[in-house]
């Protein structure tokens, strides 16, 4: 039994943090009511704020938590607390997706069940860290991690096991404790975030230790939380964050130092992302069209907000996302799982080793399908017009949708969908009017534009240094060019003339694989070895890449290739900083988010801006650990190239972009 008359011994105060005096606490809590209800009472100013500002510890149990909810909850509480030394203990019931419930129901081995629950707990915490990393404020991320690493914010994860096929943990109560040995307990649906006490209709019952008729209830709530925290409640399994996740959090929060009482980390500048609101409104006006948004400006997040809005308003009841590349589709899978609205839908995947398209088409209602672009013809055959009328379809990297192979098989497919959305940094296909016309007929026109220049000026993307590396053609290169024209003449003589596009591709290959580029690359990295730290080098072919590996190996052993046959783990190793450099062809051009990436080396480039925008966009993402980041783009260009040569055009364009700074 807890003796409420004994002075609390768990006061956590740091440095010069002031302890609220008894009189101040008494005065601050004097006006607390027995109950609070939205519409008639101010839950924030009347209850949560006074308690949070004056307490020295706070215990909270709450269910149905997602990664996004944890971030919102923590920030809502942190920005009210006056003393960063307050101890917070939080028991969370992670929201279980339908597939999680099915998986747990099918696991009979208790050890395997425990491992699955541990993964769910860790994924929720990792998702919160990932969400904070996507923001632009280093302090927000570091404070959150510092609080956990230093046990100011302690977390436990609750999983009911009292019956077979139990659902999520859903208790909702809390206890505030104060330095004058007073306690306030509460139960009810309200939460401390702005969405909880302003947007929703909420209700709480309040119990105060100094009120005789409340005393027993307060003691009961304190003991109830104590048992839950200790993991001794029958039928309830409690998991801690794993040591590996805590180690990652400690590394992220290691440089943060709390400041004086009352200081707050900077909040995310809301107007920085205002363009996403404009993009959403522009699309919802017509429900068909393309968002042309620079890499790193939140295309995926904007699309998810559109989908969530349409699902919440029952204007659609399902979602299809189609793009190309396992890495990109895996990122979509993670984002859907972390969406408070979309994670409630059943998630199906049809790409790589996943083959779930058939299950989706059997019941597309309240479902999400993530699929490869080349699964769309099969989807076209399986979906009825009635099915499509309730679905939003999203094409990420929509420029790839206009290929000749897809045009023949997907014409008319998008007729009847409730909404059709395309996403791309560069939706137009260069030198392919038929493809562009097809995209416009099927998806719609560009309804919103937010380019690289604007993104850098607004501070969403970081500025960059442009380093052109000039190379000459060798006699061997010139002979290869002559051979191209010889093959063209032979084809014409045989009645099979080349198109202009084929001639350009053949000539371009000579420049992209020029013989002097490996030598110039070696000279570059010997002079500036820093360019191979947190770097990606794009070359034209796997065979040509062999010419660069020795130069890379002379600078760092922490490198790897990343071609179609290489495992995805290579990308994760670069993301974690375990690799300094990746050498790749086209695999990394689209949809990769590595915030600490510092350098991109363009050994080969296309005439079209499409590929270049995607590639440099990899390194222009803001890094919360390096707020002053200036990226580097190295570009191999032909020496003394004519003004209309693709290298000259690209050089002028990148030099202009490199001059842009935050306005």
UniProtKB/TrEMBL annotation:
Gene3D superfamilies per the record? P-loop containing nucleotide triphosphate hydrolases
In terms of InterPro entries, this protein maps to: Helicase/UvrB_N, Helicase_ATP-bd, Helicase_C-like, Helicase_Restrict-Modif_Enz, P-loop_NTPase
Q: What residues does the Helicase C-terminal domain cover?
A: 516-663
Read off the PROSITE patterns from this record: HELICASE_ATP_BIND_1, HELICASE_CTER
Q: Which Pfam families match?
A: Helicase_C, ResIII
Q: Which residues form a coiled coil?
A: none
Q: Which UniProt keywords apply?
A: ATP-binding, Helicase, Hydrolase, Nucleotide-binding
The record's listing under SUPFAM superfamilies reads: P-loop containing nucleoside triphosphate hydrolases
A single GO molecular-function term is: hydrolase activity
Q: Which GO terms describe its cellular component?
A: cytosol
Q: Nucleotide-binding: present as a keyword of the record? A: yes
Ranges for domain Helicase ATP-binding come to 280-445
* Taxonomic superkingdom: Bacteria
UniProt protein name: Superfamily II DNA or RNA helicase
Organism the protein comes from: Actinomadura pelletieri DSM 43383
């Amino acid at each position: 039994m807890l003796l409420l008359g004994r002075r609390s011994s768990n006061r956590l105060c740091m440095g010069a943090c002031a302890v609220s005096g008894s009189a101040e606490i008494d005065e601050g809590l004097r006006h607390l009511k027995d109950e609070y209800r939205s519409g008639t009472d101010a839950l924030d100013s009347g209850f949560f704020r006074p308690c949070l500002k004056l307490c020295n510890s706070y215990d909270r149990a709450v269910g149905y938590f997602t990664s996004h909810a944890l971030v919102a909850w923590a920030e809502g509480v942190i920005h009210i607390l006056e003393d960063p030394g307050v101890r917070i203990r939080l028991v969370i019931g992670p929201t279980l997706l339908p597939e999680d419930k099915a998986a747990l129901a099918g696991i009979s081995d208790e050890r395997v069940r425990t491992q699955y629950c541990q993964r769910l707990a860790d994924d929720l915490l990792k998702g919160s860290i990932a969400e904070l990393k996507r923001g632009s404020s280093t302090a927000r991320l570091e404070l959150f991690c510092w609080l956990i690493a230093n046990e100011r914010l302690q977390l436990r994860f609750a999983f009911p096991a009292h019956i077979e096929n139990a659902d999520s943990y859903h208790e909702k109560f809390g206890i505030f404790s104060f330095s004058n040995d007073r306690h306030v307990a509460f139960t009810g649906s309200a939460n401390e975030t702005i969405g909880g006490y302003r947007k929703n209709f909420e209700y709480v019952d309040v119990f105060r230790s100094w009120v005789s008729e409340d005393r027993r209830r307060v003691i009961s709530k304190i003991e109830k939380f104590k048992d839950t925290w200790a993991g001794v409640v029958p039928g309830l399994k409690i998991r801690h964050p794993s040591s590996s996740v805590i180690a990652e959090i400690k590394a992220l929060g290691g440089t943060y130092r709390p400041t004086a009482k009352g200081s707050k980390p900077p909040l995310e500048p809301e107007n920085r992302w205002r363009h996403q609101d404009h993009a959403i409104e522009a699309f919802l006006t017509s429900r068909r069209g393309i968002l042309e948004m620079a890499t790193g400006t939140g295309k995926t997040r904007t699309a998810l907000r559109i989908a969530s809005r349409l699902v919440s308003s029952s204007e659609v009841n399902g979602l299809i996302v189609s793009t190309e590349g396992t890495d990109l589709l895996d990122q979509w899978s993670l984002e859907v799982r972390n969406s408070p609205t979309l994670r409630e839908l059943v998630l199906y995947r049809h790409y790589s080793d996943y083959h779930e398209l058939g299950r989706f088409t059997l019941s597309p209602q309240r479902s999400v399908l993530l699929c490869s672009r080349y699964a769309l013809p099969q989807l076209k055959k399986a979906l009825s017009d009635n099915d499509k009328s309730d679905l939003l379809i999203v094409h990420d990297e929509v420029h790839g949708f206009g290929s000749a192979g897809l045009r023949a098989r997907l014409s008319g497919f998008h007729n009847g969908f409730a909404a059709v959305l395309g996403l791309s940094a560069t939706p137009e296909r260069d030198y392919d009017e038929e493809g562009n016309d097809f995209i416009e007929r099927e998806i719609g026109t560009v309804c919103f534009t937010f380019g690289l220049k604007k993104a850098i000026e607004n501070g969403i993307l970081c500025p960059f240094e442009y380093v052109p590396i000039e190379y000459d053609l060798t006699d061997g290169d010139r002979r290869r060019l002559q051979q191209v024209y010889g093959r063209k003449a032979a084809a014409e003589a045989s009645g099979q003339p080349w198109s202009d596009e084929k001639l350009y591709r053949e000539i371009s290959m000579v420049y992209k694989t020029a013989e002097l580029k490996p030598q110039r690359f070696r000279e570059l990295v010997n002079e500036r070895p820093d360019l191979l730290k947190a770097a990606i080098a794009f070359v034209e072919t796997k065979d040509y890449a062999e010419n660069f590996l020795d130069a890379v190996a002379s600078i760092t052993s922490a490198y790897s290739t990343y071609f179609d046959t290489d495992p995805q783990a290579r990308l994760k190793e670069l993301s974690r900083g375990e690799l300094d450099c990746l050498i790749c062809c086209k695999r990394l051009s689209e949809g990769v988010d590595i915030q600490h990436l510092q350098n991109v080396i363009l050994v080969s480039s296309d005439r079209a801006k499409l590929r270049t925008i995607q590639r440099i966009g990899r390194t222009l993402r803001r890094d919360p650990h390096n707020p002053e980041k200036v990226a580097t783009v190295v570009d191999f260009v032909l020496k003394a190239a004519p003004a209309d040569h693709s290298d000259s055009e690209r050089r002028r364009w990148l030099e202009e972009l490199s001059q842009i700074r935050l306005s």
